[in-house]
Design brief:
By secondary structure, the protein is an alpha/beta fold. About 50% of the residues lie in helices and about 10% in strands.
Length: about 300
């Protein structure tokens, strides 16, 4: 195994920069490039968060960790993850070089491919994450992908994005088309953020208590406990009209979180989101974050050749 710097450290990996320079979104996981420092970072991240998972995570997440046979001592090989994952839900972790445009990402999950970052954060800054890394993606997201109900939520979300792209393509006026798709992307991104990334849920065995199913929380040593116990966090039942109009900021603990009753509840809200898109209820959502960049816009408009 290579032990010399820089390995595959987030923002410091020549392999990733070369792939981006070539315009490559989908890549292989060059496992031999992980340094011993990278492996030690994984070990430290895993060891310190495991007790918090056992206390705060959704039972299906813990079941997923066991089903994936995640190794606490080394960074997972994606092909090994997929050997356990595919037979359960047909999902696969698919290595990417970094940022994936909005429609491309949503269409990947529609096809049961999960875009997975292969770099790992700097071990000197365990709690600082400039962008997603393999611990966030594999340890935070993928265990939930072993659950058929949750997997169906992701696929349904991807189907809603595809439906939205074709609807937008029918808008004749170019300015209106761009404005509408930007609003729809905001609505979908906010929904994804407050459910898949930062969602809380009532405990199946005791609905009076809460647990975490959102990957952004499940991969955060500090915020996982904070999301459940901190008195200053506002926690409200999942309401579609609130979620799609609520901006969020990514550089601090979330002050507002939404509680779903079950994965069936989240699935039904995705179906309602698609219905609202077609009824025009997502065409003029409240302004604010997230910022929709040109690549995100183009990824939706190019689906029907309306860019």
């Amino acid at each position: 195994m290579a032990t010399s710097a820089p390995g595959l450290t987030t923002t410091k990996a020549p392999f990733i920069e070369e792939a981006k320079a070539k315009g490559q979104i989908y890549i292989e996981q060059p496992y031999e490039l992980y340094s011993e420092e990278n492996q030690e970072t994984w070990r430290r991240l895993y060891a310190r968060i495991l007790p918090k998972w056992e206390q705060y995570a959704h039972p299906k997440f813990l079941e997923g960790v066991r089903n994936l046979a995640l190794n606490p001592d080394r960074i997972p090989r994606l092909e090994e993850i997929n050997q356990f994952l595919e037979p359960l839900t047909r999902f696969k972790a698919k290595a990417v070089s970094g940022y994936v445009p909005a429609y491309v990402f949503f269409d990947c999950i529609r096809q049961r491919d999960f875009p997975t970052t292969i770099t790992i954060r700097d071990g000197a800054k365990l709690d600082y994450l400039p962008e997603p890394d393999i611990f966030h993606d594999v340890a935070g997201h993928v265990p939930m992908h072993t659950d058929p109900q949750f997997a169906d939520v992701l696929v349904r979300f991807g189907e809603a994005a595809r439906s939205a792209a074709f609807m937008v393509g029918d808008i004749q006026d170019k300015d209106e088309r761009v404005r509408t798709v930007e609003s729809i992307i905001k609505a979908m991104a906010r929904f994804f953020w407050f459910t898949i990334e930062f969602g809380l849920m009532r405990r199946p065995e005791d609905p009076s208590k809460l647990c975490v199913y959102g990957s952004g929380l499940l991969s955060s040593y500090g915020e996982l406990q904070h999301s459940i116990e901190a008195p200053e966090v506002q926690r409200y039942p999942l309401q579609l009209e609130w979620v799609i109009n609520q901006y969020f900021e990514i550089d601090h603990y979330q002050p507002l979180l939404f509680i779903a009753d079950s994965f069936d509840h989240v699935f039904s809200e995705v179906e309602r989101l698609e219905k609202w898109i077609h009824e025009g209820k997502c065409s003029n959502v409240a302004p604010g974050e997230p910022h929709v960049n040109e690549e995100d816009l183009a990824s939706f408009l190019e689906v029907t050749g309306s860019a």
